[in-house]
Amino acid sequence: MSTTTASASASSSTSSTSKYPPLDYSLVKCYSDGGSFFDNFNFFTGSDPTHGFVEFVDERTAYTANLAYEQNGVAVIASDSTNFAPSGRKSVRLESKDFYDEVLIIADFAHLPSAACGTWPAFWTANLGNWPNGGEIDIIEGVNLDTVNHVALHTSAGCTVSDGDQTSSLDTTNCDVYADGNAGCGGFASSSTSYGDAFNEVGGGVYAMDWRAGGIRVWSFTRDNIPEDILAGNPTTADWPVPDFDFTGPDSNIPSHFYSHQIIFDLTYILSTLVISVRWS
């Protein structure tokens, strides 16, 4: 996997009055440039805050056990495929050392975990120090036998979103974690290639999340459909297709509910009759 972040505070490159005008983004960080991808992250080792059946390991253990490594320029995280700890499988949770506000994040994945009983991988951002007040954005998430991606927002009270211009549908619109057992607001992607085996069979691809005051959008692009401006290293979102999700609306109150986010990758599990290993790359 590789991750790029770009500032969303640049001036508009168009006179458009849309809440999502094309922007002249400036590159903040490319996590795959120079050094190790993992140098940019802390390895979380406490009890799983999401209450998964897992034991997160430190950096040295992850390297020694081959749960975190780089191969041919690709960063890989994995979970233990053979041994169980009393609290679950040994696995990895990465939390970025950097914090972001109103940002465009682009991540390239060669491989996502397959849908399988007990698995719960996620790629997300959150204000970990002030959750849920600072918000959470789940960009990639699959639980158990999900075969398409689930995207969601989680906040404190006062954030209710509406369907924007998007290809998928929202199953829930109240993002308040206390309103419905932390369901948040979100839904399942309409694209059959947005997650798991179907995503892998087409060669993987790119996920992008554009967070602005007017709304939060998420795209998934298969390898053959990555926008030219991303490939050129100069993303603008100007000519991108309709996103998978557009969380927006007059009651979304994005600026007051989302701030100071870290980027998180984790492989956790839910307690189930069958638990098997998964791998990101």
Shape verdict: globular
Work out the radius of gyration. 18 Å
The CATH architecture can be given as: Sandwich
Quick one: how many beta strands? 20
- Beta-strand level of the residues, as a percent range? 25-35%
- Read across the widest sheet, the strand sequence of neighbours is 2-1-10-16-17-18-14
Domains counted in the coordinates: how many?
1
Concise summary:
This protein is mostly beta strands. Helices cover 7% and strands 35% of the residues.
What does this protein structure show overall?
The structure is a single chain. 7% of the residues lie in helices and 35% in strands. By secondary structure, it is mainly beta. It has one domain (2-280): Jelly Rolls. A hairpin with a 2-residue loop joins strand 16 and strand 17 (215-222). It is globular and about 50 Å long. The termini are close together.
Question: What brief labels describe this structure?
Answer:
35% strand; mainly beta; 4 helices; Jelly Rolls; seven-stranded antiparallel sheet; 281 residues; single chain; 7% helix
Write the layout of secondary structure elements.
Layout: E1 2-7, E2 26-30, E3 41-43, E4 54-56, H1 59-64, E5 68-71, E6 74-78, E7 84-85, E8 88-91, E9 93-96, E10 103-109, E11 119-126, E12 136-141, E13 150-154, E14 162-163, E15 185-188, H2 196-201, E16 205-212, E17 215-222, H3 228-231, E18 245-248, H4 254-257, E19 262-269, E20 279-280
Parallel strand pairs: 4-8
Antiparallel strand pairs: 1-2, 1-10, 3-9, 5-6, 6-20, 7-8, 9-19, 10-16, 11-12, 11-19, 12-13, 13-15, 14-18, 16-17, 17-18
